[in-house]
Amino acid sequence: MPELPEVETVRQSLESKARGLTIVEVKVLTPQVARAGVFEDFASALQGLKFLDFERRGKYLIAVLEKGLRLVVHLRMTGRWVYCAPEAPLAKHTHVIFKLSDGNELRFTDVRRFGGMEIVLAEDLDTHSALAKLGVEPLSESFTPEYLGELTRNKKAKIKSLILDQSRLAGMGNIYADEALFLAGIHPGREAATLSEEELRRLHTAIRQVLAEGIANRGTSFRDYVDGEGQQGQNQLSLKVYGRSNQGCVTCGTALGKLRIGGRTSVYCPNCQGGR
Question: Is 3 a catalytic residue?
Fold first, then answer.
């Protein structure tokens, strides 16, 4: 699933290509993924409107449109929202096509159909059923070591599960959680309440660092993820632990371990990250 760096990279791509362009026509090929909200018809509600900006909240993309409308997009596991020429081959799982005033198109594709887009009124954005539940943005000023301390205080949950909780940290996912915990030298199975102030400071710094590096590297591409121009990211070349179980630790050479925490696979170094 695209995580914060991947969604932010898509946002940046679309901002550079589609901001200021007008939606000339919308073709909905799969009605289930295009929700009209308070409007009767998805396509007619958007036709003729201009893309004023592209924003991100957690793992959600938000297209800012004229007339006080927002298009909330979630890529889920396999979703892509790509700017391309109209003559580009149409992917098999293309669900929505936006024809733009510069002659190009924005195409939403999703193999599994878990993702989707929904029209939301600007005044309803903060109370949207999904967005209202999201926690602090980990790259914002609101995310401080003190905030992380409050999250972990008296919590018996595993630290890996806690930082993956979208109601606490919006946008964190499995890849960057593993990478941050390795960088901070903290075992993913540690009970959150047992972390010291120094460990919390290290983890806070590590979370921000791995997310920033992921954005700088244009996201992590293993299978489905591409940016808003259809290009793969390069962050997979820099991963220290994620996807590397049984391989040698880049720091000490110890074989990396693997365990399940909260239904997610976690990869870690038994030496560098200590015990539970």
Answer: yes
Annotated catalytic residue 80: no
Residues 58 and 100 in one domain: yes
**Is the same domain home to 85 and 29?**
yes
Mean pLDDT over the full length of the chain? 96
Residue 59 bears catalytic tag? yes
The pTM of this model reads 0.95
Contacts for 166 with CB less than 8 Å, ≥ 6 apart: 58, 59, 133, 134, 135, 172
The CATH number covering residue 80 comes to 3.20.190.10
Q: Determine which one of 50, 99, 208, 264 is catalytic.
A: 264
CATH number of the domain where residue 261 is located: 1.10.8.50
* Catalytic entry in 2, 5, 138, 188: 2
Average of per-residue pLDDT across 60-64: 98
What sections of 97-169 are H helices per DSSP?
Answer: 145-152, 159-164
State the catalytic residue, choosing from 11, 57, 59, 160: 59
Q: Are residues 129 and 153 in the same domain?
A: no
Q: What is the mean pLDDT of residues 233-245?
A: 96
Looking at the fold, whether 120 and 163 belong to one and the same domain comes out as no
* CA–CA gap between residue 158 and residue 178 (Å, rounded): 13
Q: Which of 3, 105, 118, 179 is catalytic?
A: 3
Q: Is 264 a catalytic residue?
A: yes
Same domain, yes or no: 125 and 186: no
What Å distances lie between residue 188 and 43, 114, 185, 257, CA to CA?
Answer: 45, 28, 9, 11
**How many domains does the structure of the chain reveal?**
2
Instruction: Domain of residue 96: give its range.
Output: 4-133
